[in-house]
Design a protein that fits this description.
Distance between the termini: 46 Å
CATH superfamily of the largest domain: HUPs
Largest sheet: 6 strands, parallel
CATH class of the largest domain: Alpha Beta
Low-confidence stretches: none
Structural class: alpha/beta
Number of strands: 9
Oligomer: single chain
Bound molecules: pantoate
CATH topology of the largest domain: Rossmann fold
Order of helices and strands: EHEHEHEHHHEHEHHHEEE
Number of domains: 2
Mean pLDDT: 97
């Protein structure tokens, strides 16, 4: 039986005994199957002498004004039990006041990969993500950290931050985890009502149909994906784009390293997903 340590202050986190290898799973809580998979992969990387740390922090800096920061689910007790069961060694669950002083004035901003897709639709989002992730790496002395491929652009931006600012943390990508009907697992899925949840399965159908149709024109790939999404009357498309999976700039025709990425809103819930092409 593992005794999970729970810490809520930066001082407590930094006073933890040094682990041989600490692998971090950064989250905003409302934990689900994909987080369970991340903890499993983290455990493998940490090995017998290492430890798995998981952070839960709904980071206000990465929510644009008017988005779902206030209503973002915060099921504290359930998350704690989830972590214990999954075998997390150290749970870091700070408050907003603990993470950000009123007079904060240093932020981390990536200025190239962030200009398209999520960065374009959600100005300031990646600045908030980079800033909090850098803080978490430092606070928890993370030797490695895991990020899901569902947030493919986030993963690439974190890698770029690590490279350009010489963090010692290695970044491990975890493939997207899907529910049985194909919907990518996300804490936001729980906002969906029954109709929206059912119709949201068009996202993976659109991605797989477009990726497997053998089309080389990016425009045709996008058109096909849009057509499939259009079969769900509740879907409102934010973007469907083919980009280079390293630069996140639009590409046409499709190349070996292309990514089809989309963001679609169902009711008040914005979902993202992606698939590699080529
Ligand atoms: O992907 C997320 O859940 C968040 O963006 C992260 C990496 C935990 C930073 O708040």
């Amino acid at each position: 039986m593992i005794n999970m340590r729970i810490v809520t202050t930066i001082a407590q986190a930094q006073a933890q005994p040094n682990a041989k290898c600490r692998v971090l799973v950064p989250t905003m809580g409302a934990l689900h199957k994909a987080h369970g998979e991340m903890v499993r992969v983290a455990r493998e990387h940490a090995g017998h002498d290492g430890e798995v740390a998981l952070s839960i922090f709904v980071n206000p800096l990465q929510f644009e004004p008017g988005s779902d920061y206030e209503r973002y689910p915060r099921p504290e007790k359930t998350d704690e039990e989830f972590c214990e069961k999954a075998g997390v060694d150290l749970l870091f669950r700070p408050s907003v006041a603990e993470m950000y002083g009123d007079d904060r004035s240093v932020f981390i901003e990536e200025s190239s990969l962030s200009n398209t897709l999520e960065g374009k639709s959600r100005p300031g989002h990646f600045r908030g993500v980079c800033t909090v992730v850098a803080k978490l790496f430092n606070i928890l002395s993370a030797d490695a950290a895991l990020f899901g491929e569902k947030d493919f652009q986030q993963l690439a931006i974190i890698r770029r931050m690590v490279r350009d600012l010489n963090f010692k943390t290695s970044i491990i990508a975890v493939p997207t985890v899907r529910d049985d009907d194909g919907l990518a697992c996300s804490s936001r899925n729980q906002y969906l009502n029954a109709d929206e949840r059912e119709q949201a399965t068009v996202l993976h159908k659109a991605l797989f149909a477009a990726a497997n149709a053998g089309k080389t024109s990016a425009r045709d790939v996008v058109d096909l994906a849009r057509k499939v999404i259009g079969e769900a009357p509740l879907a409102r498309i934010d973007y469907v784009e083919v980009v280079d999976a390293e630069t996140f700039q639009s590409v046409d025709p499709v190349r070996a390293n292309s990514l089809l990425a989309l963001a679609v809103v169902f009711g008040k819930t914005r979902l993202i997903d992606n698939i590699r092409l080529g």
